[in-house]
């Protein structure tokens, strides 16, 4: 056998084994993909999103300050000095602390175990300051359980990036708000065109890699034009860059630019 034949045999043997191992790894990953996705997303929610909420605390105080002066459209709640607030994308409930006590709260989230989390979870205590009226499993694109013009305030924070349809969700927000009701939002937006990070955001979003691991989140979404086109009477917004120490810095690098604002029906 010539040297070239020996070399070819060794290559086939080595790469054949490598290919077999690679195929085996792929099969194992596919079998475990669903549970892997859930584990990664849970770690993301209870890790980075909680840290992100703390980093944005000052901005949330600014955003939610107008809640102190909201007068409910509901005469009964008005007489009690309460408001009705609908939140889309509850996650771990980090926003609850900013709502007025005894707020009538409607929560919308994809987590099918949200109701259980609210009543028996170890983080139950933040929710004790509000009265839970209803829990809806979904992403906000359909709120058929909520009557038209019955909500005083709608809140989304880092939520529109992962809804099935931004336009449908915003139309539902507009519909359920009472005339004069407020839509308060903080949403992450992509970097400027032409930057390396913007290119990464596009690749990860358009290939489906990022959405598949992080609850449908798309890093290349800027909802401000959709908000402006929904039919609100008055919209104000500003931008800010989130910074600080987090355990998963690549998440912050990819979603540090934000818009903060209010839209009035």
Q: Overview of this structure, please?
A:
The chain has one domain (40-264): 3-Layer(aba) Sandwich (Rossmann fold), CATH 3.40.50. 42% of the residues lie in helices and 20% in strands. It is built from nine helices and seven strands, in the order H-H-H-E-E-H-E-E-H-E-H-H-H-E-H-E. The longest helix has 53 residues, at 3-55. The radius of gyration is 23 Å and the shape is globular. 31% of the residues are buried. The model has no long low-confidence stretch (mean pLDDT 86).
Label this structure with key terms:
single chain, 265 residues, seven-stranded mixed β-sheet, 7 strands, 42% helix
Order of SSEs: HHHEEHEEHEHHHEHE
| Weakly predicted, low-confidence segments | none
Radius of gyration: 23 Å
| Assembly category | single chain
Mean pLDDT: 86
The name of the CATH architecture is 3-Layer(aba) Sandwich
Q: Write down the CATH topology.
A: Rossmann fold
- By secondary-structure content and strand pairing, the structural class works out as alpha/beta
Helix content: 40-55%
Cross-sheet strand order for the largest sheet: 3-2-1-4-5-7-6
Number of strands: 7
Biggest sheet features: 7 strands, mixed
Report the CATH superfamily. Vaccinia Virus protein VP39
Keywords: Membrane, Methyltransferase, Transferase, Transmembrane, Transmembrane helix
GO molecular function: S-adenosylmethionine-dependent methyltransferase activity
Protein name: Methyltransferase-like protein 7B
Domain Methyltransferase type: 86-185
């Amino acid at each position: 056998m010539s040297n070239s034949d020996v070399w070819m045999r060794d290559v086939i043997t080595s790469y054949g084994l490598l290919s077999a191992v690679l195929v085996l790894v792929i099969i194992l990953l596919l079998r475990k993909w669903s549970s892997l996705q859930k584990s990664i997303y849970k770690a993301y929610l209870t890790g980075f999103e909680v840290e992100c909420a703390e980093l944005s605390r000052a901005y949330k105080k600014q955003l939610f300050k107008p809640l102190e002066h909201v007068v409910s459209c509901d005469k009964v709640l008005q007489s009690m000095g309460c408001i009705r607030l609908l939140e889309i994308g509850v996650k771990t409930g980090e926003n609850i602390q900013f709502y007025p006590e005894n707020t009538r709260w409607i929560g919308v989230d994809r987590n099918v175990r949200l109701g259980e989390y609210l009543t028996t979870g170890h983080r139950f205590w933040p929710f004790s300051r509000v009265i839970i009226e209803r829990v809806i499993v979904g992403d906000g694109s359909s709120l058929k359980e909520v009557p038209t013009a019955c909500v005083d305030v709608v809140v989304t924070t880092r939520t529109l990036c992962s809804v099935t349809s931004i336009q449908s969700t915003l139309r539902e927000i507009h519909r359920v708000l009472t005339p004069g009701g407020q839509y308060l939002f903080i949403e992450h937006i992509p970097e400027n065109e032409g930057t390396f990070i913007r290119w990464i955001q596009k690749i990860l979003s358009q290939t489906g890699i990022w959405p598949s691991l992080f609850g449908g989140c798309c890093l290349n979404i800027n909802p401000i034009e959709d908000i402006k086109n929904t039919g609100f009477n008055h919209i104000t917004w500003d931008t800010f860059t989130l910074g600080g120490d987090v355990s998963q810095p690549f998440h912050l690098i990819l979603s540090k630019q934000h818009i903060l604002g209010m839209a009035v029906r």
